[in-house]
Design brief:
Radius of gyration: 21 Å
Mean pLDDT: 89
Number of strands: 12
Helix content: 40-55%
Low-confidence stretches: 1-17
Amino acid sequence: MNIHNADDGKQTAINEKLDDASRSIEKELRAAIDQWLGDQPIYWNSKWNVWVATSYDAVAKILKDANTFVRNMNKREGSLEFWGPNHLLYQGLDTREHRLWHAAHMQLTGEDFAEGIRKRVSEISYEVSTRLVNQGHAELVADYANMIPFLAGYDYLGFDPSDTSLKDTLLTQLPIREIWKHRIDVGDGVPLDSKIARDGLEAIQIMTSAMLPTIIDRRDHPRDDLISKFWAKGRELFPDWNERDIVSNCWSNIDNESKLAFRGLLYILCRNQELQSTLRSDLSLVDNFIEEGIRILSPKRTIVRTATKDTILDGQQIRRNDVIYAITATANRDETLWPCPYHFDHTRPDEGTSFAFGYGAGYCVGRYVGRSEASEAIKALLSVTSSFAIDPSKPVPKWKGDMYHVPSPVHAILQR
């Protein structure tokens, strides 16, 4: 299927409605995605030495069949050191133990949990956005897109909100860990003797030492927080569950991948004042804006799988141990599900299932929390500003990354 074959009449009508900002963003996104397209829905990419799957149907098949196409992250160099040797999720990916904990984690942080934290996330977002608008400017990646998920996760995990030393330690070390994480996701991993791995491992050790006192305290004195619930559910399922497993599960709550989509959403808003005004006048439209945004941004655009056996996929012979890149960004532009798929349309009905947060056994455990955090944060920023826009005196935002593709930095001028 060729995802470019949109109906000409519809596309012409849409183009007539697009403002310059929308056309520019559409062009930026298209340039980054077209590089993955081949002459078949599944083709061999000699640059990466992998199969590449670009169509919606092919990506869906790969993500659904967790027995044939498995994650190989725990086999990449540095992965066990990154996640921690006691972490069940990465000791045996796609094993019964992993799936058991994945399901348990989803129960703990599913839709009900995500709705339950909205009020507190809103309060945090108003506090941060008010401070930023008082400054009159901000780098929205570090100051907002990264900050809101961190502060929200810090809060509902159960860390002491008055412990500024712990907050500062985590905020200083998390960006160092993030660099290592993104590099581990590419190719065969990162050599442990490289500077990136050494710095990342040191950052993880510093943060682990800082978090352990609270984690151990919740083991012995549980409270109504997520760390205590991780302890209770983990020990119920696994006899050797320990504090290192809790540390590993904290990462996805203070440094989750939803912040990547959040960065792109803020960039789109910075570039489109008319869209800002529309959403500001009716905040109920924000959730639909987010759904369309995560579809078209697909910030984790490459999901990596390894074949466990010889198989045929859309006519291609896949051999055991072949690596496959499932490209979510192209799959999420299937014209049969999203007419004129390259156009960002915040009024588009939410009818198709996008792969922005994965799918199947590897569905992101933070997909509900991430949506709630982005929703409340964007509503708060829209509410405390009359407008915000790219600061022309600062470095221009650049789209960066192969596996994760996001704009950075996003320097903005904020007006009350």
